[in-house]
Amino acid sequence: MKFDVYGRFQVEVLWENDHWVVYTLGIGTRVRSAFVIPSSVAANAVGTYLDDLLHELSGPNQSVRQVS
Q: What are φ and ψ of residue 40, in 5° steps?
Protein backbone atom coordinates (compact mmCIF):
# COMPACT_ATOMS: atom_id res chain seq x y z
CA MET A 1 0.00 0.00 0.00
CA LYS A 2 1.27 3.46 -0.85
CA PHE A 3 0.32 6.58 1.06
CA ASP A 4 0.77 10.29 0.43
CA VAL A 5 1.68 11.89 3.75
CA TYR A 6 0.27 15.44 3.83
CA GLY A 7 1.62 16.14 0.35
CA ARG A 8 5.15 16.10 1.79
CA PHE A 9 6.34 12.59 0.92
CA GLN A 10 5.11 9.11 0.10
CA VAL A 11 5.56 5.86 1.95
CA GLU A 12 4.98 2.26 0.96
CA VAL A 13 3.79 -0.11 3.67
CA LEU A 14 4.25 -3.84 3.11
CA TRP A 15 3.45 -6.91 5.21
CA GLU A 16 6.73 -8.86 5.38
CA ASN A 17 7.59 -11.77 7.66
CA ASP A 18 4.58 -11.21 9.96
CA HIS A 19 5.10 -7.48 10.52
CA TRP A 20 4.63 -4.14 8.76
CA VAL A 21 7.65 -2.66 7.00
CA VAL A 22 7.59 1.01 5.97
CA TYR A 23 9.62 2.45 3.10
CA THR A 24 9.98 6.14 2.26
CA LEU A 25 9.71 6.69 -1.48
CA GLY A 26 11.69 9.14 -3.56
CA ILE A 27 12.21 9.60 -7.27
CA GLY A 28 13.50 6.18 -8.28
CA THR A 29 14.37 5.25 -4.68
CA ARG A 30 12.86 3.32 -1.81
CA VAL A 31 14.52 3.52 1.63
CA ARG A 32 13.46 1.60 4.70
CA SER A 33 11.92 4.04 7.14
CA ALA A 34 12.29 4.32 10.90
CA PHE A 35 8.48 4.43 11.29
CA VAL A 36 7.17 1.44 13.22
CA ILE A 37 3.66 0.12 12.73
CA PRO A 38 2.70 -2.60 15.22
CA SER A 39 1.75 -5.92 13.66
CA SER A 40 -1.57 -5.71 15.52
CA VAL A 41 -2.70 -2.84 13.24
CA ALA A 42 -5.14 -4.15 10.61
CA ALA A 43 -4.45 -3.45 6.94
CA ASN A 44 -7.50 -1.19 6.65
CA ALA A 45 -6.25 0.92 9.60
CA VAL A 46 -2.68 1.58 8.42
CA GLY A 47 -3.55 5.00 6.97
CA THR A 48 -5.24 6.06 10.20
CA TYR A 49 -2.25 4.84 12.20
CA LEU A 50 0.14 6.85 9.99
CA ASP A 51 -2.06 9.93 10.43
CA ASP A 52 -1.98 9.50 14.21
CA LEU A 53 1.78 8.92 14.19
CA LEU A 54 2.70 11.83 11.91
CA HIS A 55 -0.02 14.40 12.65
CA GLU A 56 2.52 17.03 13.73
CA LEU A 57 3.62 17.29 10.07
CA SER A 58 0.15 18.20 8.83
CA GLY A 59 -1.05 21.60 7.80
CA PRO A 60 -4.61 22.89 7.58
CA ASN A 61 -6.94 20.49 5.73
CA GLN A 62 -4.16 17.97 5.00
CA SER A 63 -4.43 14.25 5.49
CA VAL A 64 -2.69 10.95 4.92
CA ARG A 65 -4.32 9.35 1.91
CA GLN A 66 -3.83 6.01 0.26
CA VAL A 67 -2.67 6.33 -3.37
CA SER A 68 -2.47 2.61 -4.21
A: -75, -10
